[in-house]
Structures are given as structure tokens and as C-alpha cells.
Design goal:
It contains 11 helices and 12 strands. It is an alpha/beta fold. The protein has one domain: Aldolase class I (TIM Barrel), CATH 3.20.20.70. The longest helix has 21 residues. It is globular and about 65 Å long.
Length: about 375
Amino acid sequence: MSSLFSSFKLRGVELQNRIVVSPMCQYSAIDGVMGDWHLMHLGNLSLSGPGLVFVEATGVEARGRITPSCVGLHNDKQESSQKRIIQFCKEHGTSKMALQLAHAGRKASTLPPWEGGKPLGAEEGPWETIAPSAIPFVDGWHIPREMDEEDLETVRRAFVDSALRAERIGFDVLEIHAAHGYLLSEFLSPIANRRKDCYGGSLENRMRFPLEVFEAVRKVWPAEKPMGVRISATDWDDPGWTLDESVVLAGELKQLGCDFIDCSSGGNSPKRPPVGPGHPGYQVPFAERIRKDTGIPTMAVGMLRDASLAEGIVSQGKADMISLARGMLYDPRWSWHAAEELGAVASYPKQYERSRPAKWPLAFPEINLSTEKSDASKIKN
């Protein structure tokens, strides 16, 4: 039996398999409001039955957007637009739906990637950015304003308010974005955090604000629903955030009711990881170490397009879930194709059932259908 296609339960939510669609910014919202592009995008990805589908990083306040075209969840119009799409995905798909709440911090107020990804110029409607310290991401970027006590409280409250909206929308899972050099990640890293108060300096102090945000949101997020955190397990720079510190953070989050750690890396420094075509699964050791040392479930992400690799990661206990991003954009039916390769049975909508290879073997001579045929009793007519 395939480990990748085994079910997985987090609190009161059971995923039909261990496949996760990562949060992926689409830079296609208008004033934070989702539109038909998001309906097509998320509906398409949820159609082939991954266990969990994430909506992209969603700003908890307007100044927390990466770009002017990023999704937000801090007013009624944004909430209504998301509810329409999540209800649509749940009606027609079998995946659970998740939301990632985010604040871009010092990396806000930029252009979309296809327009260069640079900070907005004076004629492009820039806004004030905030961060733990008044340090730009790189030279030439906006110099953020160092957050004061009022800013800290405003952002904490914004995360809570967005979580309440997410519950009304009907999301099954919630994730806090504390990775990739965005605001909560900035507090963790000595690269971005040079504060002299109780939110800077020691590891305990640098973790304080992200932990406060998590704790505040966990209190209002339903007890039966899981909540996790995406982290950058390392900054790939020295001095910077480290894997050892990530283990400590994961342990603290677990004590506060965190249900999983989504293990990515980088973002606080322009330095890139030593990764290329020959390094699939380069972030898996982070998920494995955190899982082993803390006992918290982990999600592995990063160049995991190979189904056999994904299967091995789960079966060997290196991570509990496998998250795909670009691989899913390239092949939205990755779940089906992985099931064929691994001899598992994937979820098909009844309208597409006729395309299942086990039901039309002469059309798929290249696929070994022996295992799927042996599980024919599980396949609905």
C-alpha cells in the first residue's frame, strides 16, 4: 500500500492522502479581492484530489501585501470573494481547503515578478513598510519603519481578525506564514531583527512576537481544526536563522497547539541555497530533523515532483506530508499520475471517472496497472 496515498488526521480533519498543494501567489487580485482567475486556478488544482489545497499567502492588512495585486482578508468584500471560491472547490472537489495568513513586512510594496519584482517607484503607488528593524532587504529597497508597540498590537489583532474571517469562510486548515523573509520570519532572523527591546537579541526574544501571534490566533481558531506554521528552517547565511533554532521554535509552537510545521528555507538574505537540478528534496532534511527532535508532524516541500521520491519521504518517516508548488502548476493532475506510478487509487470526480487508466487500459499501455486493477473494488463505476 502506498504511504503517500494513506490518509492522515490532524485534530478533527482527515486528509485523504499526504499530498498538499502549496500556497502560491498569483498576483491577480484587485484590492485584495479574488476573482475568476482564482476560481479557475483553485478549482483546477482541487479537482484531482490532493489531500489539502492551500490558498496563496493572504495579507492580514493592506500594508502586509507583497504587491498591489496580492490577496487580502481584512474586509467584507475580500471575505465574500474567498467564500464563493472555497464553497465552489468544496462542492466539486474532494480536497480539504487551507489558508495561509501572511504579512510581507519589509518585503512589501513591490511589483509582481513578471514586472520585475522590484520595490514600487514613486509613481507606482508605494506604501510604508514595517519591520522589526529599519533595515531594507537589500540596497535600493524600501527602508521599513521599525515597529513600535502600537504596530505590534495592530498586526497581532490583524492576524486574529483574518483568522475569524477564515473560519466564517469555511476553511479546514489554517497556516501562519513565518518564512521566506516576510514579517514573522524577519523577527526570527538576526539578519533582519536588530531590536534592543524584548523582541530582539536572544533567541527567546526573537521568537517572542511570532509566538504571540500564533498563540493569539490559536485561541480563536476552532479547537477541532488544525493550525500550522510555515518556517524557513535556515537563512542559508551566517549569521542568520539556523536549523537548530528552528527545532527550538517548533518545540515552542507545539506547546502552544501547533499541529504541523511546513519546512521551507531562505528569504531573509539574497543568498540562494546550494540547489539545482541534481538536488531534489534538498529541504527534506529540515522536515526530518524537526519531526524527529520534536515529534510534531512536518510537511516537506521543494523540488519533490518525483512520485517515488515523495513516496519514500513519507514511508521512511522523514515527513508526514508532501507539498508541491510549481510541479502542480505544470501538472495539475500530478495526484492521478503519482497514483498510477505507485499503484495506488486516486480520487476522480465522477465526470472524469471514464479517464481512469484502470478503466481504459488499452489507451494507457505505458502504465503498469496491476496494483490498481487489484484494487478495482475501490473504484466506483
